[in-house]
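In the laboratory, one determines a bound structure by crystallizing the protein with its ligand and collecting diffraction data. In a computational setting the workflow is compressed into a single prediction: the sequence and the ligand go in, and a structural description comes out. We illustrate the idea with guanosine-5'-triphosphate.
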Amino acid sequence: MEENRLFNNWNRALLVSLQLPNRSTSEVQNSLQELSSLAYSLGGDVAGKIIQVSSQIHPANFFGKGKLADIKSTIQKDCVDALLVDNQLSPKQIGNLETLLDCAVLDRTQLILEIFAKNARTHEAKLQIELAQSEYLLTRLVGLWKHLDRERGGIGASRGTGEKQIEKDRQFLRHRITRLKRQLIKVEKERKTQKKRRSNCLCVSLIGYTNAGKSTIMNALTNSALLVEDRLFATLDSTTRLLEEDSRPKVLLSDTVGFISNLPHEVVAAFRSTLSIVKEADLLLQIIDASDNIDDHIQTANDVLQDLEAASIPVIKIFNKTDRITPTRMLLLEKLYPEAIFVSAIQEKHKKSENSADFVHKIRKQIMVFFEERMKTVKIRLDYQHCQQLANIYEWSRVDNIDYQEQGIMMTLTAIPRNLERLRHHLGSNITEMR
Ligand SMILES: Nc1nc2c(ncn2[C@@H]2O[C@H](COP(=O)(O)OP(=O)(O)OP(=O)(O)O)[C@@H](O)[C@H]2O)c(=O)[nH]1
Ligand SMILES: [Mg+2]
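The predicted complex, in structure-token form:
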């Protein structure tokens, strides 16, 4: 998918941020640090970082005249070939900056789209990122056109100049967007069939900031070997595995794409189908990197959950990477989040096996306790002529007791309310609930 990156022709970047009065210095610095991780994830080098504190945005060039001169001389001195701006720029500002500085200019949204384009592996992820890019391009065609024209002769099939070419590219993009949406609807249909199959199970989804350790924990909990990497957005699709072979009801665990501050709207919208796994979950495990900027990361997760209409799903917080924090910070976090689980997924992996089972056991237990607390127990009688329904009963509930009596099969079942409802609906008058 490397070829689907729009800006793959730069190696060395200068990072710049405009600090407006509504943002604190530490906020801007953290965000700029994250921007450099994004650049590294793309395989680029960072030549330096510049912050301009200003009370306003320069309408034409985003940065003021003096700062632009600084930026230009650093670009020339340090052989920089891309300017990465940690703010959202208008198409016109991008165009003006590219002309003035004679290098590629990417804002935060574009940089994230580039990483998604680079890392997308599955058919669905590729379709989704192509859609996000097309929609982004459609709104910025005028500003980006110059760059695209220079790099690859326009994005469409034909060459041309100015307005005419822009109109052709616009049409081309609109067609592409329609085609991609159609293809995605097909993929979503397949996902719905899988969902039907999953419907007897309890669904738990791992969520959290990118690089927090979600896939590492998923691997440990389900004995899998999903991709784990020290770079942002290693995971871009959803994977679902059974948590425990013999638990009843069955519990499924899913790993999915991570979140980031100011996640571009285009990306959230395009990845809605991948993220639907989050919306359908009965429980969320929120993985938080204890050594990072936790307030911001928790806030980001809350915002994304709100956006996905998943804010009412219960959450268990898991602070990971505790090997990277001091005992004092650990105490503080434990006081602030008494309900949370604290783990070091990587350290435990390297410890002896009985220890490594510890954190897996701790998380599994908490999941089971969560569901146990919500389960209800009922006594039922099943008439012998309907005993073929036993398979469904075993599938949807835990059978605590079974007694073959003259008047029918007497059973004590425990299940979550949703599954009990399903049983009542499915078996109707074939079962009699006992008081
Ligand atoms: N020090 C430390 N590193 C960890 C721990 N858990 C995971 N990591 C590392 O953190 C990096 C990211 O881990 P992943 O499991 O890929 O994180 P993720 O949340 O799935 O990230 P994305 O899929 O990119 O959003 C990897 O280099 C892991 O080895 C931990 O407990 N301690
Ligand atoms: Mg991952």
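Residues 375-434 form a domain with the Alpha-Beta Plaits fold (CATH 3.30.70.240). Keep in mind that any predicted model is a hypothesis to be tested, not a measurement.
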